[in-house]
Amino acid sequence: MDEIRLYGLIGYPVSHSYSPAMHNAAFKQLGINAEYVLFPVQPEKFKEGFANIIARGASGLNVTIPYKERVMEYLDKISESAKLIGAVNTVVVKNGKLFGENTDGKGFVKSFKLVTGKTPKGKNIFMFGAGGAAKSVGFEMAFSGARSLVIYDIFEDKAKALACRIAKNTSSFVKAVSSKDKEAMAEEILKADVLINASPCGMKKDDPKLLDKKLLHKGLVVCDVIYNPPETPLLKDAKRMGLKTMNGLGMLLYQGAAAFKFWTARQAPVGVMKKALEAQITRLHK
């Protein structure tokens, strides 16, 4: 029997992740002798932890908060699109070399189209966050024809740097709003067609609210990259107002399917992966 192939998710924390359920169901369906596990690695131990996982013979990894940018310096080759985005969420190990790719943005846009029935083309977008997930989501929405993208992050320099990079490489109008200027933030949200939370805010019960719910207006589509909990306070407020909402589950599914293909060179069984995710949600959120 072939030796079991090892895949997993590196990040901190990772205990909330549904990825093992999804990928292990896919391996089983296709008869691939492989296992997907969680690798919680604390920030101060990342270099050593990452090296140890590779030394254990991992064939591929997903990368999550807070390492999507940090992991890049330890890779041998990075795809042009991941270089442009400035973040990696998928690592493939081939012949002892580490290759980095980013499937987050494409996963988000695919989910956006399917869940909302809309396309990013011509839309005015307001996005919270300027980290690894926000980079890929922001770039992909701009590549998909967004008219404008306004970025807000508590670290203003990060928001400005990301806005500059996306503006330079796409045809969308892109700018950052100051984290100190709540009035400007409110003004931009009121002009938006789509609001995206691409920050971790909302994962924990004691997280502060992102915005005053009075800013949620008719016709606004509200998206969150968070999938656990399935409904963040932001999405709850939007739903109560009858707005169209989307959580991060579709993004997780479609970025995972793309990562699976990079690792195995086989088409991912998306239906099976989706069922595994739904079963996981039912178990955890009865």
TrEMBL record:
Entry protein name: Shikimate dehydrogenase (NADP(+))
Shikimate dehydrogenase substrate binding N-terminal domain sequence ranges: 9-91
Keyword Transit peptide in annotation: no
One BP term from GO: chorismate biosynthetic process
Domain named SDH C-terminal: residues: 248-278
Record InterPro entries: Aminoacid_DH-like_N_sf (IPR046346), NAD(P)-bd_dom_sf (IPR036291), SDH_C (IPR041121), Shikimate_DH (IPR011342), Shikimate_DH-bd_N (IPR013708), Shikimate_DH_fam (IPR022893)
Taxonomic lineage: Bacteria, Pseudomonadati, Candidatus Omnitrophota, Candidatus Aquitaenariimonas
EC nos: 1.1.1.25
CDD domains in alphabetical order: NAD_bind_Shikimate_DH
Binding site for NADP(+): 80, 129-133, 225, 248
HAMAP family cross-referenced by the UniProt entry: Shikimate_DH_AroE
Subunit structure: Homodimer.
Molecular function as annotated in GO: NADP binding; shikimate 3-dehydrogenase (NADP+) activity
Entry's family note: Belongs to the shikimate dehydrogenase family.
Catalytic activity: shikimate + NADP(+) = 3-dehydroshikimate + NADPH + H(+)
Residues annotated as catalytic: 68 (proton acceptor)
Pfam families: SDH_C, Shikimate_dh_N
Known role: Involved in the biosynthesis of the chorismate, which leads to the biosynthesis of aromatic amino acids. Catalyzes the reversible NADPH linked reduction of 3-dehydroshikimate (DHSA) to yield shikimate (SA).
Keywords for this protein: Amino-acid biosynthesis, Aromatic amino acid biosynthesis, NADP, Oxidoreductase
Gene Ontology terms: cellular component: cytosol
Pathway(s) the chain acts in: Metabolic intermediate biosynthesis; chorismate biosynthesis; chorismate from D-erythrose 4-phosphate and phosphoenolpyruvate: step 4/7; Aromatic compound metabolism; 3,4-dihydroxybenzoate biosynthesis; 3-dehydroquinate from D-quinate (NAD(+) route)
Binding-site list for shikimate: 17-19, 64, 89, 104, 227, 255
